[in-house]
Write a structure and sequence with these properties.
It holds the Pfam family Plavaka. By secondary structure, this protein is mostly helical. It has nine helices and no strands.
Length: about 190
């Protein structure tokens, strides 16, 4: 076995669970992961020009970004843009996709927003679990209509662990990398 670890260092440590060292990452797992998948899946329902038309024709609304040129013209998408896209994604699909697909998308969006609550209790964690359960109840429609061959997607699987990790480590803003990313940009890149 080349380059593999035959005997990991944590073997024999009674209180060590290496899997708990991987905490949720809202930006990379949910926005650049699930939202990116959801936007890509839109190509199964309409072509880029039609999606851009739907994005463009949404009425401007206070607090929401209006993408005048649509999404296909975006070459590099920042975290803020992923968040802005997520906030209007469902509105772009209404009337164009089957209602079961809207339920799946809404459930995933609900999960993403609830996961970012600044405080959690048993009730909010139940909302989080209910949103994920709702998605799993209806996800077969995505396979049936050919959106994706399978839904064995690691970033989708990681969502199963959010409830337990929030209980163990607190809200997702406690271990969010977004603040450090901005700190790196301000102090290292701009400083250079």
């Amino acid at each position: 076995m080349l380059g593999g670890v035959r005997q990991p260092f944590w073997v024999g440590f009674p209180l060590c669970d290496i899997h708990l060292s991987i905490t949720p990452n809202v930006f990379h797992q949910l926005y650049q992961g699930m939202i990116k998948h959801m936007v890509t899946w839109c190509s199964s329902f309409m072509d880029d020009a039609e999606l851009d038309h739907h994005v463009h024709t949404l009425p401007p609304c206070f607090g929401l970004r209006h993408f005048k040129g649509g999404w296909s013209c975006l070459s590099q998408i920042s975290g803020k843009e992923w968040k802005d896209m997520a906030s209007i994604l469902l509105g772009c699909l209404v009337g164009k996709v089957p209602s079961e697909v809207l339920v799946c998308y809404r459930a995933l969006l609900d999960f993403i927003y609830i996961a970012q609550y600044p405080t959690h209790d048993d009730e909010s964690l139940q909302y989080l679990e209910d949103a994920l359960d709702l998605f799993h109840e209806h996800k077969q429609v995505l396979i049936d209509i050919g959106v994706h061959n399978h839904l064995d997607i690691p970033k989708l699987h990681s969502m199963v662990h959010y409830m337990e990790l929030i209980k163990n480590f607190g809200t997702t803003d406690n271990y969010n990398t977004e603040m450090f990313k901005w700190f790196h940009i301000d102090m290292a890149k701009e400083g250079w």
